[in-house]
Amino acid sequence: MGAGAADASCTLHVAAHALASSLQPQVAAVFFASAAFTLALAVLLGSLRLRRPPWWCACAVCECYLSASWAGEFDNLCDWYAHLLRAVPGRTVHVHVLGNVLTANPPTVEHMLRARFDNYPKGAPFSAILADFLGRGIFNVDGDAWLFQRKLAAAELASPAIRAFAANVVASELRCRLIPLLHGSASSSASKLLDLQDVFRRFAFDCICKISFGLDPGCLELSLPMSAFADAFDAASMLSARRAAAPMHVLWKLKRLLNVGEERELRDAIGLVDALAAEVIRQRRKLASSGGGDDLLSRFMGSINDDKYLRDIVVSFMLAGRDTVASALTAFFLLLSDHPRVADAIRDEVSRVTKEDNPLTIATPEKLKDMHYVHTALYECMRLFPPVQFDSKFAAGDDTLPDGTFVARGTRVTYHAYAMGRMESVWGSDCAEFRPERWLRGGRFVPESPYRYPVFQGGVRVCIGKELAIMEMKAAIVAVVQRFDIEAVGRSSRRPKFAPGLTATFAGGLPVRVRRRREHVGGQECPPG
Ligand code: HEM
Predict the structure, then answer these.
(1) How do residues 9-20 score in pLDDT, each as one tens digit?
(2) Which end of the chain has the smaller Cβ count within 10 Å, N or C?
(3) Taking the CA of residue 386 as centre, how many other CA atoms within 13 Å lie in the half-sphere pointing to its CB?
(4) Which position has the higher pLDDT, 214 or 20?
(5) ipTM
């Protein structure tokens, strides 16, 4: 995952102030003594090597980052990065204080994800940032540990039996949970709003738990309501992303050592995430002892006898399956609310493709494949709102990027999918428009190179859940658009405001008003039992 869609306004003053307010006096003394020592050491080392420490750069970009003055003009850090990247011909910018080279240049993206893949691993610094949350899960490792998890999970997700099972899970979640919930909202008073982002998170979480772990989260025996665990998951994602956006990693490391401030919050959140994962593993074992177990987690359990490692795998799949899908669906309905003609075109296509069926049944994967317009609308949505806004690697050795930028060993290199989707040089002068037709040729969806559209990444570590995610999202879109009109209230797709996290999340959720399109009683869609 991209380590941080975080809007970090991390000046040294702000960091010091925040720290001071979170520390007990005696702890503060120890902390400031250590910080002063670190600072003095860095200054000394910096002067001996006759160059500034990386977090002490005074160039315009770094000053803007450190003083957070970009926030005067832009709503989100990612919008400022997109602006910077548009302004340079090579579409590559070095933010020295973060030791981060950002790129929106397709040949450079291909270079790092495919041609020189071996030189651009996740790397030790990335793993350190996310180690507490993701451990040795697939997103946070390289080499053998990565290959082992990838091979096993990719084979499982590609199996026809799992695909059929996944389609049934999605259909049942739509029929029995999501649609009745929306019917309920449509029946309530007109002034009552629903947070659609929250609804899609619950939908995607239930789907991934059933598909990957063979478990309904509703059956878990937990000490707290599921919402507490969901909040903990979000907090862990947001606080881990903050680490990645900090210019001085020594600060979060010290805070972690002293267990204060945000690091204390992170530890508490991860404690709940651990409890959730432990319960998933316990229930899976219990079910396995009474037969059954053809799911992804059971496969991993067959080869791994280490509960900590299993925990990391469970957490990674929860993150992969919940937040990405929920992010894309939320953005989709925000865009649709601003573009009713796209909703009409989707309804036309659904009636064309499902002509002999009842339009209110859940579309099968085969029918969904024939819905090219729905596909283009979804791709177009993720061009403007990629769930993983950016993704970083660390150069294992010195290198020169295709645009001529020199990258020293150990430098973080980030491809910025959000900026690329809004780049005139990649998508033309109407790049800011939501125009699904740009993906259609002769009525059929035609994909782009993954290096121009790295929404699912590309190359050697391309997303292995892509087909599953697309089926799930298309099924949800068709089911909702056929039955309801969704009006986003107080939000515009032109001025999105993101919250920090590993995946793109709208700050304050997506409040919507739901209106029923046909007279239809929600509960009747779900067969009894
Ligand atoms: C809209 C939906 C999704 C999007 C946009 C998306 C995007 C991505 C991206 C950008 C990566 C690269 C992340 C990195 O290297 O840090 C990735 C990797 C991955 N995704 Fe997805 N993903 C989606 C849904 C899913 C789902 C539903 C699953 C679960 C079954 C999944 C499983 C994975 C896994 C296991 C990897 C790691 C691949 C590797 O490192 O070899 N994804 N995805």
Answers:
(1) 333 333 333 334
(2) C
(3) 26
(4) 214
(5) 0.99
